[in-house]
Specification:
The chain is of the alpha/beta class. It has one domain: Alpha-Beta Barrel (TIM Barrel), CATH 3.20.20.140. It has helices spanning 28-37, 50-59, 84-92, 114-131, 143-157, 173-181, 198-206, 236-247, 251-266, and strands spanning 12-17, 40-46, 66-70, 97-106, 135-140, 164-166, 184-188, 212-214. An 8-stranded parallel sheet has the order 1-2-3-4-5-6-7-8. Helix 4 runs parallel beside helix 5. The radius of gyration is 17 Å and the shape is globular. The chain starts with 11 loop residues before the first strand and ends with a helix. Bound molecules: nickel (II) ion. The site of nickel (II) ion has 5 residues, from loops.
Length: 270
């Protein structure tokens, strides 16, 4: 800690929360108050299906630092209606909607057939390109196909890039370089605080600080010492502290850098 770190007001950005989740139905306002009190000035609230995306869009309040992402999670891909893309396009135009997500591939649970997951991921990546929005990418045990889909989209756009975040990044250092090469950032969350976090720590140590954002993925993945409990945006402070420890930086430095990275990626400084 540098001498003044304790006095600097750390401004944090939780880049991945699911506030439309039923776990927050009873006390969402209290949760938001606690986040603010903890220095979490910005939250990106992501949907996972059409209903939660509509809720996230309705909840968005840019003046209060509350933004929304809309998208169909791979778990929900098989249940998406035929007109889901048009409905997402409409939601994405609402005020405070700044990204498409949570989208991606999940070969761990395989709740939706893989070809359906891949089709919806590709279609939503293309929609993000059309709308000029970044993406929040879920990749669980599907690194190769996730990278292939992103590369294909980068090529389709002709820019060679796709803006967004590899949410709760769990891949190798080598693959991290591939995602960073496409212009994506890496999201670091609760797992960084877990005792068995060796690979996540290695990546968080090795990549440039300009490539990292922090997140909770609440209500899931609560950081230590809340592991196993309901997670909430206020706990992103624990992630920032863990990242500061890994990088040998003050909390204020990590807060400033990750918040600036998130704002830049989401185009909030324009
Ligand atoms: Ni999530």
């Amino acid at each position: 800690m540098t001498p003044d770190a304790g006095h600097s007001a750390a401004v944090l950005f939780d880049t991945h929360a699911h506030l439309a989740h039923a776990d927050f139905a009873a006390d969402r306002e209290e949760v938001l108050k606690r986040a603010r009190a903890a220095g979490v000035r910005y939250i990106l609230n992501a949907g996972w299906d059409l209903a939660s995306s509509a809720e996230a869009a309705a909840m968005a309040d840019p003046g209060q630092g509350l933004y929304a992402a809309v998208g169909i999670h791979p778990h929900d891909a098989a249940r998406a209606p035929a007109d889901y893309l048009e409905r997402l396009r409409d939601l994405a135009r609402r005020p405070g909607v700044v990204a498409l997500g949570e989208i991606g591939l999940d070969y761990h649970y395989d709740f939706s057939p893989r070809d359906t997951q891949r089709r919806l991921f590709a279609e939503q990546l293309a929609l993000a390109g059309e709308l000029g929005l970044p993406v929040l990418v879920h990749d669980r045990e599907a690194h190769a196909d996730t990278l292939a889909a992103l590369r294909q989209e980068a090529e389709r756009r002709g820019t060679g890039t796709v803006q967004g975040v590899m949410h709760c990044y769990s891949g190798s250092r080598e693959m991290a370089a591939d995602f960073l090469g496409l212009g994506l950032l890496l999201g670091v969350g609760g797992p960084l605080t877990f005792a068995n976090a060796r690979r996540v720590v290695e990546v968080a140590e090795a990549v440039p600080l300009s490539a990292l954002v922090i997140e909770t993925d609440c209500p899931y993945l609560a950081p230590a010492p809340y592991r196993g409990k309901r997670n909430e945006p206020a706990y992103v402070v624990r992630v920032a502290e863990a990242l500061a420890g890994v990088r040998g930086l003050a909390l204020a430095e990590v807060a400033e850098a990750t918040t600036a990275n998130a704002r830049r990626m989401l185009g909030l400084d324009r």
